[in-house]
């Protein structure tokens, strides 16, 4: 008998299919092919990756809505959403800035951390010309 903490929701097969669509969509350009994948051609859609994104967003919307309905109140729901999203986001941002950034930047470590052109807080956003990376 399923409990409220039971994580099975029947979407695993659909998630697997959507992930396969993403891989399929990216495989053609990665091999240098100008063709589109057979799913894109068969369904006459823009890309199979776009279809996958629609599937992932649909599943996510359903599960977030279900979580809201099952919450005792809006504050409990918002707290659970916050702690589900923001810790991972903080880890990714910190690793990107302090590990990945210095590795892929063309600047030295000192220049990377001291370069005012890299200061995203200067204008609240990064300008195209201020990003010191090879494209």
Write the SSE topology.
Blueprint: H1 12-30, H2 38-43, H3 48-70, H4 74-104, H5 109-114
Helix pairs in contact: 1-3
Q: Can you walk through the features of this model?
A:
This protein is mostly helical. The protein has a domain at 10-70. It is built from 5 helices and no strands. It has helices at residues 12-30, 38-43, 48-70, 74-104, 109-114. Helix 1 packs antiparallel against helix 3 (48-70). It starts with 11 loop residues before the first helix and ends in a 21-residue tail after the last helix. The model has no long low-confidence stretch (mean pLDDT 83).
Strand content: under 5%
Largest sheet: none
- Percent helix, as a range, is 55-70%
Mean pLDDT equals 83
- Supply the number of helical segments: 5
Order of helices and strands: HHHHH
Global outline:
flat
The structure class reads mainly alpha
Amino-to-carboxy terminus distance: 54 Å
Radius of gyration (CA) equals 21 Å
Number of DSSP-assigned strands: 0
Low-confidence stretches: none
Quick structural summary:
By secondary structure, the protein is an all-alpha fold. Helix 1 packs antiparallel against helix 3.
């Amino acid at each position: 008998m399923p409990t409220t903490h039971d994580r099975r929701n029947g979407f695993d097969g659909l998630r697997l299919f959507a992930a396969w669509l993403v891989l399929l969509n990216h495989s053609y350009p990665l091999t240098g092919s100008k063709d589109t994948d057979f799913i894109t051609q068969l369904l006459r859609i823009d890309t199979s990756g776009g279809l996958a994104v629609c599937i992932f967003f649909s599943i996510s919307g359903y599960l977030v809505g279900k979580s809201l309905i099952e919450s005792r109140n809006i504050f409990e729901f918002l707290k659970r959403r916050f702690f589900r999203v923001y810790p991972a986001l903080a880890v990714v941002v910190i690793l990107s800035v302090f590990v990945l950034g210095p590795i892929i930047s063309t600047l030295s470590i000192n220049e990377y951390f001291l370069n005012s052109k890299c200061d995203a807080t200067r204008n609240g956003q990064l300008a195209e010309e201020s990003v010191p990376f090879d494209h």
